[in-house]
Known about the structure:
Largest sheet: 8 strands, mixed
Shape: globular
Amino acid sequence: MNGSEIGIHKINDYLWEIPARGDMIVPARIYADRESIDFLLEESRTKQWDALLQIQNVAKLKGIQKAALAMADIHPGYGFPIGGVGAFDLEEGVVTLAGVGFDINCGVRSIFVSLPREDIEDKKEELAGELFKLIPAGLGATGSLKLTLKEIDSVLKEGALFSLNRGYGTTEDLEFIEERGRVEGADPAKVSIQAKKRQLKQIGTLGSGNHYIEVQYVDKVYFKEAAAIFGLSEGSVVVSIHTGSRALGHQIGTDYQKVLSKASQRYGIPVYERELVGAPIGSREGRDYISAVRAGINCGFANRQAISGLVRKAFNRIFSTRESDIRTVYEVGHNNLKVEKHLINDVEKELLVHRKGATRAFGPGRSEVPCKYREVGHPVLVGGTMGTASYILVGTEKGMKDTFGSAVHGAGRVKSRKKARKSVRGEKVIEELAEKGIIVMSHSKRGAAEESPSAYKDVDQVVNIMEGAGISRRVVSLRPVICVKG
Length: 486
């Protein structure tokens, strides 16, 4: 399939559009350069799993506003492309499982550590070992925080505050977490007992897949004013935590797959792919699912808060750091549902925004942005790969108008996990990164292969596309020193 066959055309060097046709209600817009579009078109022609087809299917969902959007890290997901954004009218629109996925409120927290980079380099083997020992990681990993079902209900209501009240982190953290680490409207009664039981021992655990803890340093400053407001400069030490709601979030997705599949039939909603099921936002099924997702969001906040406390503990053991030496720069999710106000035809309107592998990127002036950052917008935390770079960005006014205040969440895969495992051995990945001075500690050699740098797009290119399109702006780049994985 080529561009003319699907009707894709170039709007500018960084934005492409598939006009609405057939059952599409709105156009599909893809942030990409020529090379990226050619790659996506080749996938459409040769592969069954097709990100361009998926974003067109999103454009068919009832009540969608403006356009179905794909950020520059687009790649195929379950029904909704990763890197996808869709905003829906609250009265006419649908909520869809695929727009959140199974890793609810997967996201990133970045922590500033007031230590010279040289100190980290001198003790990086010791620090890596301490982080690996303190923070449980891997498939099914369990932590030291053992909870009852009643306490899990508290997690689902309280979010980060739950972990804070149990001694993980500091009160100041809450100011610099999206939604202050807790969303309203979470109803634990809409989450199954099975989901809750799976989470009894998983708060404060990293998980597997692409989740990680990475010790990094600021390699380059691009936007000095924003970097100064975020308290970052060249050589600053940063720890980034990437994980989500663990087994509970996955079980919510599994449970509601069945509920929303039946709802799609009941309400006459066409199902274009298995996970692209949904329900009218105002229906009983829609309201129940949204309440369950909000509970999962709070679980993700609680998990990252607990892990941040363990990170502080590791640094204290190795470097005798004080509480004031470590602070949260920001935390933001990238698999979420949010009711937000955005302009539609110059009129402010409440919408239900789905972001699947896309980060909220609110620019200057929005009330949701912490006061300290409001002049420039909140940090957008973009994970790269173990061997390249990550970025901190900020959103823009153009991004607020064009993408509902959304940006990329990472580099985006170019190889499936299966293909990555076939192309490289995990031991080889770890050895090659060690030669570059990067320590990788993984509970699974298979996981190291699946997450090898070669499995991902060029994160520099991805970020450049979004900046070229005017959607976000680079603040700093981060280089890895230590990576702990499941």
